[in-house]
Amino acid sequence: MFYVKLATQNIKKNRQAFMPFLLSMTFLGALNTLMLILANDQGLTKMHGAEALQQLFGFGAVVIIIFSVIFSIYTSSILDKQRKKELGLYNILGLGKRELARLTLVEMFFSFLITAVLGILSGIVFSRIAYLCLKKLLAIGTEFKFVIQPQTLFLVLGIIFLLFVFIYLLSLVSILRSDPIKFLQAAKEGEREPKAKWFVALLGFGALGWGYYLALTIESPVSAVIKFFWAVLLVIVGTYFLFTAGSIVILKLLRKNERYYYNNKHFIPLSGMIYRMKQNAVGLASICILSTMVLVTIGTTASLYFGEQDRIEQNFPRDVMITSVAKTDKLKQDAKAYAKKQGMTVTNVQQLKASEGLLFLREGQGQLKPVIRGSFSPNDADRAVNVVLMDLIDFNQVTGSSYRLEKASDILVYNNDKFSGKTLELGGEKLSIVKNLPRADELGNLGNGVTPAYLVVVRDQSVYDALVNKWYTTKDMENYRTPRYYLNFDIKGSTDKAKRLAFVRGLSRALAKDNSGYGIEFKDSYRQSLKIFDGGFFFIGIILGTAFLLATAMIIYYKQVSEGMDDHDRFVILQKVGMDRTEVKRVIHSQIMMVFIFPLAVAIMHVGFAFPLIKKMLILFGLNNWHLYLIVTLIVIAIFTLIYYLVYQLTARVYYRLIER
Length: 661
Fold this sequence. Notes:
This protein has 20 helices and eleven strands.
């Protein structure tokens, strides 16, 4: 009973230390409840095309659990730090380490009860709101229902319990290693001036520069994925080195500038930061990394969501796209007949013949070498291009043009590879470019793939056959030599989404009865699957971004509270020697601004250098509109900066109240 009473009193009296801890743990409980309810939703298994969404929610749940472990360790370490003096006093008054361990166990038990109840209840409420938002984002029907499964709640309860067990074990280790005398004297010990570690600072700048270099020099989306991990790792390492060592080097260089340092606006904040940066650096670096994660996560997922229509139009210029190894006349007749039965009309029909996308590697300026996809190495990703061959008769017929090619070596070329030469060497054959075509819109989605694309128009079918027979000689390469026939058309007659989806599914079944050797894709089916994926991805981005944002705010708050407690006596002395309240506020404002503008500025710099890398990676998802990504990123930065400023204002007030006489 003694421990219960003492534990409840400690929690009440130390609200300033316990409240942020309990709020953060409650939020983690709510977040896990939300993600696990969504990940275990049985309605997702009944939804057409929701497999990717289910995997996304499962991935999000795992990320949230990992984030919960990391963030709970951080918040508990801050709580332990703030209570060292109190526990040291208890130890001096007669409570041994065993008794302190029991007291901490009771405190953790009460904290667990509060967190579990409030976390799960608030998580259920947020889940209900999330279901409504998801239905709006995904445009789905009644199969996606809000159902609370008892096993999910027990799983959340188990996660919260394990988190508190882990936190208690860390606290127990701290208590067993503690020295009560040192705890009581820790606040009175002066902070030694940190040394300027030039070598570590240079390593930090070097790692940061290397990471930026990778981000700026990556050429293809495939290599962007391969090198993304290394770029991120280098930037994280560089950021921590920059804050821990580089910041001290910069501050000491500022101190050497007498005009800047011996100024009443800069003297106190700068001198204090030099002594305190040793313990501030890790927290500031964490704020910077988390801020970068918020900006990148929400910026990319929002761009994919709002760029959905662009991606649909790029990949599906027409409603139905059929690829066949034989002529498509019968497929066209069957499609028109089925559409007539269903009260629909086939319009804007396009038939063309061309090769499939042939993989080539750049050997030099205007030199392309054919390669078999099975022997393609990821190391060659930056050199890969996609080549489509077409004869002039088919090209003129489809585009309505009247180009002429006199020689067998004459070609027309369209490319999105920024190549504008007069000669193109394909697999050792030097071909003369009669004209560089400005666009190829009539030919569907050419050029919207992951790799740069070339459309090469040759004089006639005999030139076409001679080229592919030279490049692909063995029997197993016959597939590369065979041309493809394409049938693309629109369907008119209804704008209702459900009716159009039912029609295209019925059309697929009807064509399959009397035809073979073809593949068929529908814009409406693609739109539905894209809507589900992008909406779910955007939702995950919002959840993770909110989690990272909360972590950023909590680190800032903890830092301000810790700084305020440590700076209290220093500012009391300054006020006693004549500094008035206005000057104290000005010094506080200057110190906080110097500390917290730095992480935000570096985070925005990280996002700026990561822009080319992320732009390339978004191409893998079909988003080529980098202007949209730029606009969305700028909006996200503006909103985040506003929130960051509000957090700064609130925490500055807490800091001022702590140091005020």
